[in-house]
Amino acid sequence: MSNRLSEILDDTFKGLKEAGVIGDITCNGNDWAYADELKTHSETGEKLSDQWRSPTSLFNPLKEEFPFTLDAAADDDNHLCPAYYTYENSGLEADWASYHEFVFVNPPYSQSAKWVKKASEEAAKGCCVVMILNWAPNTGYWHEYIWEPEYD
Length: 152
What we know:
Layout: H1 3-18, E1 25-28, E2 31-34, H2 56-65, E3 70-71, E4 83-84, E5 102-105, H3 112-124, E6 128-131, H4 140-147
Parallel strand pairs: 3-4, 3-5, 5-6
Antiparallel strand pairs: 1-2
């Protein structure tokens, strides 16, 4: 991880913790882990969906480092880039790398495996993909696509 990216993450996570959005954060080498799960907030008590906007306090510093042109998993109300894919025009089926050098993805966590696989495929074609994911190193997709990708 670059020093600049590490600084961005440090500052962003500190701000999110102070705002009460996340719990304690630890860093083990280059691997970020959350001691607590992301806290959910719902005034109605209804189950929250997979679709929610990424905090701008996290997105904006990342955008300074990575000039994103595509939000690959968004909707008409929560996209953070001018170009974006929605559920209806699925980013899972689109070609990211041919049109976008820097891609931001905050996927529906219930479908993380599909999105991580897609991100790995697009990264292998040459685009830079930055994803927001739950820490799940015990999953098969984590080992196959994050820790040990097979790029030619």
